[in-house]
Amino acid sequence: MKLVGDKVYLRYPTVDDAEEIFERLTSKIRRTAHIGAKTVQDQRAWLKSHPKMRREKQEIHFAIVEKKTEEIIGLGGFCNLHMRKKYGEVGVWITESKWKKGFAKEATKLFMKYGFEDLNLNRVEAVARVKNPAAWRLLENLGMTREGTLRQRAKLGDKPADDYMYSILKSEWGKKNANNRD
Ligand SMILES: CC(C)(COP(=O)(O)OP(=O)(O)OC[C@H]1O[C@@H](n2cnc3c(N)ncnc32)[C@H](O)[C@@H]1OP(=O)(O)O)[C@@H](O)C(=O)NCCC(=O)NCCS
Q1: pTM for the predicted model, two decimal places
Q2: Ligand 1 lined by 32 (C-beta under 6 Å)
Q3: Could you report the per-residue pLDDT of 71-81, keeping only the tens digit for each?
Q4: What 3-state DSSP class applies to 173?
């Protein structure tokens, strides 16, 4: 499976990618993204579990590869997939040296297209820390609606933190694409 954009393409990550992925995960990324892996071994084990999670459509993650360098610059995709209810939660992280270059926007657009067209989801949702404007700007720019605040549902460092809940429906996404807006 390969999803292709202008600057990046997305492919399933493999166990052999563990080191490359792990070294991109700085503490700033860990602060706001849900990263379970504390060691390369954890990273390897997590990647090893992917084919089964994909087959069972529980979680589907992609490595984000920069076309120009062929390097993995981030990871993202769907966790909390509910195929019967037709919704899933999208998430993404990009390595710090590549921030603010439009990579997350392009990759997340591809995740949404995959979610609505290939997985036939009706709703794509996402959560973003209230104190993480980069994340909620990204989601709002992609046409997602802020539905409310999930109070102290998350952690920022050791402290409880609020999340915003976002979503976009297939009908809204279809309209946005039909109008060919960016
Ligand atoms: C959030 C994150 C994925 C954004 O990645 P990115 O590649 O820098 O984002 P993009 O360059 O595609 O920018 C998307 C939008 O967010 C805005 N943005 C990016 N970083 C920002 C920042 N630090 N502050 C305010 N806005 C920011 C951009 O200006 C852009 O908006 P625009 O189209 O109006 O210019 C990245 O900061 C990251 O990996 N953070 C850590 C993990 C995380 O928090 N993930 C989000 C979970 S949903």
Answers
A1: 0.94
A2: yes
A3: 999 999 999 99
A4: helix
